Amino acid sequence: MKEFGPATFGEMYADEYDTYHDPGTTVEAVYMIELLAGDARMLELAIGTGRMALPLKTRGLDVHGLEASPEMIAKLREKDGGEDIPVTLGDMADFELEDRFDFVFLVFNTLFNLTSQAKQLSCFESVGRCLNSGGKFLLETFVPDLSRFQNGQDVAVKRLDGEQVWIEAVVHDPVDQLLQYQRIRYTPDGVKLAPLPMRYAWPSEIDLMAKLAGLELVERWGGWQREPFNASSNMHVSVYEKRAP
User: Has this prediction a pTM greater than 0.90?
Assistant: First the structure.
């Protein structure tokens, strides 16, 4: 499988990102972030093509972005309002910004694109450095479901109609908590492979990484509509606050 670096996702998927990577929760997520952040100066990690940032900017919020992929930034710049959002080219696993923010967010499981615990912890530490005291960090990730795996692997049909079939295959490494995805699309134009490695973390591990970076959990929900988080939740939206020195 292709070696993934900070910019690899954008190199592979920028042209098709808006078509194939819509979680269907944008309206709810934008509303929640606007409600939580208010008029705070905010930073979106992995801003991508602007799915979240553009509607927030339209609502008058002060949004800045960090993005490792020049290709994703270029797609953002092509859109109405995309030129008006300040974006820093950088790796969310380890960044240092001159600006400070009152609200930082990272959504759509993107923390798990960092494929080691060390990189994920470094991301939290970088967030801690750029947050003002009392600032908030919002994070959205899935909750791992290991019951799906048989002999450390799983295959599922994601789309099937008269002209195409999409299959998702994944191999699970429980030691390093790695998921090696390969998405195979069979269409009239041929076959396309779309690989993606992810390193999952349980909510408790994420909380510990946050704590080591000086951030304390203050809210957690099972979805963007503030559903209760419990044992049946398949995702979580968590809010951390930077402790006063």
Answer: yes
